[in-house]
Amino acid sequence: MKTRDRILLCTLELFNEHGESNVTTLDIANELEISPGNLYYHFKGKEVLLDALVDDFLLSTRSLLLTDDSPNDVEPEDLWLLLHLLFEAIATHRFLFQDLSSLMSRYPALRRQMQPWVAALRLRLEQVLHALHASGHLHADSGERNRLLDALCQTCLFWLDYQRVCHPDELDPASGVQQMLGLLQPWLDAEGQDWVQALIARYG
């Protein structure tokens, strides 16, 4: 593995374990057993490291959120795969979501990176709700759908922080998927509720 890649992997692990604010570039260099100068040669400070990790996260979720096609129907397996991959990416880069608002206040560039991501997340979930409503599976008017959409987006953004506070030993992405499906289930028709319950049971 190239030194640059080793540095990014180590930084991700330390950020996830200790939180970005509690990790210095010296900590990273010591963990890798390289000189601070060698680290600086590849990354000119912690903000550059953060920027690279955020780029990795955005790239890992790009194909999930940015699609040219607006789905006309939502199949259970498609919904499961979308949520599964999304929460896996969030868990892999969990330092971002453990205190996102604080991170964005300290790194203005991060706000500029993450706000379009949140907008893309909202649009993708809105497409899912629209498809479910158009197919007759989702029984909710426009106001109810907007409130449900807010709840789904908030779960994506803050599920990990909630888990870290209340259930620090239960950071499995499956619990995030279950929460999302649980929010959706009461608004579905009998058929929709059955397949959502089957998806929840898969994670049980």
Q: What is the N-to-C succession of helices and strands?
A: HHHHHHHHHHH
- The overall pLDDT average reads 90
Largest sheet: none
Helix content: over 70%
Structural class: mainly alpha
Overall 3D shape:
elongated
Note poorly predicted spans. Answer: none
Our estimate of the beta-strand percent is under 5%
> What is the rounded distance between the termini?
37 Å
Number of β-strand runs: 0
Query: Mind telling me the C-alpha Rg?
Result: 19 Å
Number of helices: 11
Please describe what this structure looks like.
This protein is 77% helix and 0% strand. The protein has 204 residues and is mainly α. The radius of gyration is 19 Å and the shape is elongated.
Please sum up the structure shown:
With 204 residues, the protein is mostly helical. The protein is built from 11 helices and no strands.
Give me some keywords for this one:
204 residues, single chain, mainly alpha
